């Protein structure tokens, strides 16, 4: 299991995962209400990583823009390589 910390940007014009010098940013269309932005961020990460959404679980940050997700089935090295391609 690998862990990734991301910054979620809700109410964006599009859903995207971006990796840059500031870390990983997940842009989502959903508003930060009722956990919808967090759920969309998890689905976006799963899509970029090529895994089912059920393998991406929130570890911490439910009410914060900075969130930590656990990713089942990938090593930390594999996760970093896949994210760098964003």
**Integer-rounded radius of gyration:** 12 Å
State the distance separating the first and last CA atoms.
Answer: 21 Å
Mean pLDDT over the full residue set: 95
Strand order of the largest sheet: 2-3-1-5-4
Helix content: 25-40%
The low-confidence runs, each spanning 5 or more residues with pLDDT under 50, are none
Strand proportion: 25-35%
* Backbone shape: globular
Q: What letter string, H or E per element, gives the SSE order?
A: EEEHEEH
Total strands: the figure is 5
Output the number of helix runs. 2
- Class by alpha and beta content: alpha+beta
State the major sheet.
5 strands, mixed
Walk me through what this model shows.
There is one protein chain. The chain has about 90 residues and is α+β, with helices and mostly antiparallel strands. The chain has helices at about 35-50, 75-85; strands spanning about 1-10, 15-20, 25, 55-60, 65-70. It has a five-stranded mixed β-sheet with strand order 2-3-1-5-4.
